[in-house]
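Case study B.
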Amino acid sequence: MTPEIINLIFPNPLPTPAEIEARYPRRNLPEGVRVTRIAPSPTGKMHVGNVYTALLNERIAHQTNGVFFLRAEDTDQERKVDGAMKIIVNSLGRYGIFADEGVDKDGKDFGAYGPYTQSERRDIYQAYIKSLLEKGLAYPCFCAAEDLDIMRKIQEKTSVRPGYYGKYAKCRNLTDEQILENLKAGKPFVIRFKSSGDNNKRMIIKDLIKGDMALPENDIDVVIMKGDGLPTYHFAHAVDDHLMGTTHVIRGDEWVSSIPLHIQLFVALGWKAPKYGHIAPLQKIDNGNKRKLSKRHDPEACITYFWEKGYPENALIEYMLNLINASFEDWRRNNPDKPAFDFPVNFNKVSNAAGALFDFVKLNSIAKDVVARMSAEQVYDAVLAWATDYRPTFAERLKANREYVIRILDIERNIGKKSRKDIVKWDDVEQDIAYFFDDLLTVSPAEKAALLAPLTESDIRLIADEFAAIYQPADDKETWFAHIKAIAEKHGFATDMKAYKENPAAFKGSVSDVAKVLRVLVTGRDKTPDLYEIMRILGADKVRARLAF
RNA sequence: GACCCUAUCAUCUAGCGGUUAGGAUACGGCCCUCUCAAGGCCGGUACACGGGUUCAAAUCCCGUUAGGGUCGCCA
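Model:
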C-alpha cells in the first residue's frame, strides 16, 4: 500500500507505535500478580451479569494484590448514553467492587494507563491501524452495507458459510489504483484486517475456565475500523489490553468464537496475548427452556431490581461467589464471621460452565443467613437507607422510632445459630413489624374472631380480661407464661401438651390456644415472633388496650 | 444451516477409572415448642440415551438427543 494511499486514509498526524509504547510502560509487577479489567459499554443499564463478571475479575486481581481497572467501551456512539458511567461505577461500588484505575463516575480518568475511555483513544487505534496498512495486514473496504446484505443473502441461499472472506472479500484484492480512485471520489470506507487464517484448520485455545477448545482459525477479514474512524471491539480489545497490561481477560462466553481472531490480532501486532477465561451467562427458565437473562425482557436482569427489592448487597455477593465456586458455602460455614471477600476464589475451578439458572430461592436463603448475622442496629441502618430511597413514608417512621424499631428487630436475634431468619430483603420489614404501630394495625374484631375460631367471643373476652388484669411487664418470662398456664387450667385448657395430644377430647383446647388468643388480640396475627418480647416492647398500656376486645 | 461448548437430584454443584455417588437450597416427616421462624435429627429424588475401551466407567472414546453460544461498520 503506497504512502499516498495511507495519507489519504489518515490525513491527520498520528503518533507512531513506538511513541505510544513509550507512554505505556510495562507494569512492573511480581510474577503471579494479575491484572484484570471490567469493560462495560456505557449503555445506561447495568446487568447483573456485569456485576458478576466484575466481581470475578476484581477477586482474581486483588487476591494477588494485582490491578483491577475499569474501561469504558463506548466505540458504539449510537448506543452511548450520558451519565452511564455513573450508573456503572455506583453499581459496582455498592457491592464493594472498586477499580484501581479507570473511569470514575463522572467519566474522568484515574491511573497511569489512560485514557480509559475508548472514544478518547482514537489516535492510538488509528496509529496501529496505520501500521497494519503499512505492513499489508489491513486494507480499506468500500463495500456498502447494502452490498454486504446482498452478499450474505446469497451465501445463505447457496448454503455457504456467511462472511467476508476468500472470494467474497471483494475489496481485499483491489489495486492501488482502484483504492486511490475510490478514496479520491470520497467513497466511504472501513478498514478490514487481512486474515491469513484457514477455516479448515483448528487451533487449540487454552481457556482458564472452559479448558482446551479446538476452534477453527479465523479467515474472515473483519472490520477493525468503522466508518466513523473508531475501532470495533476486537481491535480495541487487542490494543487496550496490550497497552494497559492486562494479564487475564475474564469475560462472557459470547466471545469464545472470536478468540482465534483476537489471537490473530495480537500476533499481527507483534504482541503477547493475555490469558483468557470465559464464563457462561446467567440463565433463566422461559417456557421450559433456559435462556440468558436479558435486560430487555427480564426485570431481574437489571441490577436496580435488587436495589428496589432491598436485597442486602452481601447477599448478592455471597450468592455470586457461590456460583463462582460452590465451595463457598462450606467456607462460609467454617468462617461465619469473615467478610465474603476473604473467600479465596479459585478461578481454575469456576463452576457454571454451561450457564447457571439464576436461583432466587437460593439467593433468598443466603440473604436470610446474611441478615441473621447482622446486628439489629445494622439491620435498622440498612433498612433505613433503603427506605429513604424507595419507601419515604416508611423511612420517616423508622427515623421517628429508632430505638423502638431496633428493639423490635432484636427479638430473637443474636442468639448464635438460633437467630430468627425471617428477613430476606429490606422490603419485607415494613410488613413484618407493622403491628407494632397502632395506625398500621388494621385487623377488625371480626377478623380476629375468625382467626380464633372455634373459640367463642365470650371465651376470648374472658381470657383477654383475665390476662389484662394480671399482666405485669416486669414479669420474667417464666412468670408471664405461668399466668397463661393458670388461665388455661382454670378454663379447661390443657397445660401439658402431651396429655392434650393423647386425649384432645378431654380439653377445651390447649395452652397454645390461650396464647393464641393473646397473640391475635395483641398483634392481629396468629403467627408472630416471641409474644413475651412483643408485649414487653409494646408496653403494658398498649397491651391492655389491645386486649380490650 | 455451519462451527464451538455443555450434559450428575427440582435447583446450584462435588466427583477427575474402584465412593453405600457427597454437600447446599427446596420439599416431606419427627423432635423442640405459646404460634411462626430458627435449631436438631431423619427421609425421598440424579449420573440424558445408545454403543464401545477396561477386571472395573458418572469419570476415557464414538455416536444420538437436548440445551447454550457464535456467525454485524453491537459490544
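The radius of gyration of chain A is 33 Å. The remaining cases will be described in the next quarterly update.
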